[in-house]
Amino acid sequence: MAQDTAQQASTAPATPALALLPLILPAFVVGVGASLLLLGVSAAAEELQHVLWRNLPDALGVGRYSVLWMLVMLTATGVAVGLVVWKVPGHAGPDPATTGLDAPVLPPAVLPGLLLATALMLAGGPSLGPENPIIAVNVGLAFWLGCRLAPRLPRGLWPVLAEAATIGALFGTPVAAALVISEALAGRQLRGALWDNVFGPLAAAAAAALTTTLVAHPTFDLGLPAFGQPDWGDLLAVLVVASAAALLGMVAVLAFPYVHGAFARLRHPMVALPVGGLVLGLLAAVGGHLTLFKGLDEIGELAADPAGWSAGEYATMTVVKLAALLVAASCGFRGGRIFPAVFVGVAFGLCAHALVDAVHPSLGVAAGVLGMLLAVTRQAWVSLFVAALLVASPAILALLCIASLPAWLLVTGRPQMQVHEDGTPFR
């Protein structure tokens, strides 16, 4: 959860049960609204994606994922998003390289441009997810509407509810929001019980997750082969794969400020974004169409046939997708880094399985995702949660808890995949 959010929550007074009751209705309203906005933007982007990557190339007689079409579409997406950033009021919000899940409260005039830039990005193919901009839009809307419709409630409540709700909607469960909140509150002095402080955000996350589940029926279980009783070889495998994935992720994290600085020297969004799109098109030409888009649908294709690609092909997809994430997050596309990092971790884990058959594919995928997300997000609980969610195995969860310790030692205290406004690394 955002630093400001955590500070708001940590200064909340001890709250008796009767004082918590007024939070329920606002939390449910924010939760349902946050989920519907996420689903609406995702649905609109999916429809546009079908037009751009299916209907249009078919009508023109061009291969849907031919090298030419990927170069054209990704460059055109850079032009389209560049126009939004350049001309639309608010310039689609701040530089996304300077923001994380801790969204600032943006003025209402900024939000339409940010939504438009996000939908165009999701449809056009850059390797970013919807999480960061959708959180920012939900925070801005909740704050603006909440302060006007319920002025008696604390102003700091609305960003907390909106962030938790969006995280719950993204993962289809309030557990992710609970883990993020608890991580944000760690080490802070709380007035009252922890659950008093997180009651409202968890109610919002529950309402959002339930709405997403009822409307979209999401699932994150990849359906990989079942994992049996672990042995010492599995322990060694999970330690090695998670740590190696964390090290690979740190290569991208350390390169982030330099790549961002290179695009920043292009100065204008109508230069930086089309150039970024062209580079993404060239990367897709190397890695193939599975390295496009946010990555959730694509990891399903990989998991459906773990033996369908060689170790070299998995390695190529891993490196290309990580490079694409690095470029897309640096050149100005509006989007988040969690979902493409999940693809990188999945491809890395399947590569480990292809190289060493004794590495179970479910174990390799979970360990790869854990290490990659630890490096890219620096959110330990969320990394562990997402890695376990993909394989749904209690035995693997126990191994992941152990593997998170050495992987965390490799990433803690290092720069994050975020920069300050002056371009310096974020720690």
Please explain how this structure is put together.
The structure is a single chain. The protein is mostly helical. It has 17 helices and two strands. The protein has helices spanning 3-10, 17-20, 24-60, 67-87, 111-124, 131-149, 157-171, 174-185, 194-216, 232-264, 269-287, 296-304, 311-331, 338-355, 361-377, 380-391, 394-411, and strands at residues 416-419, 425-426. It has a two-stranded antiparallel sheet with strand order 1-2. The longest helix is centred in the first third of the chain and has 37 residues, at 24-60. The radius of gyration is 21 Å and the shape is globular. The model is unreliable at 1-15 (pLDDT under 50).
The rounded distance between the terminal residues' Cα atoms is: 16 Å
Briefly note the structural class of the backbone.
Answer: mainly alpha
Helix content class = over 70%
Strand order of the largest sheet: 1-2
- Report the sheet-strand fraction: under 5%
Q: Rough shape?
A: globular
Q: How many DSSP E strands?
A: 2
Calculate the mean pLDDT score and round it: 89
Series of H and E elements:
HHHHHHHHHHHHHHHHHEE
Biggest sheet details:
2 strands, antiparallel
Radius of gyration: 21 Å
Low-confidence stretches: 1-15
The number of helical segments is 17
Condensed summary:
The protein has 17 helices and 2 strands.
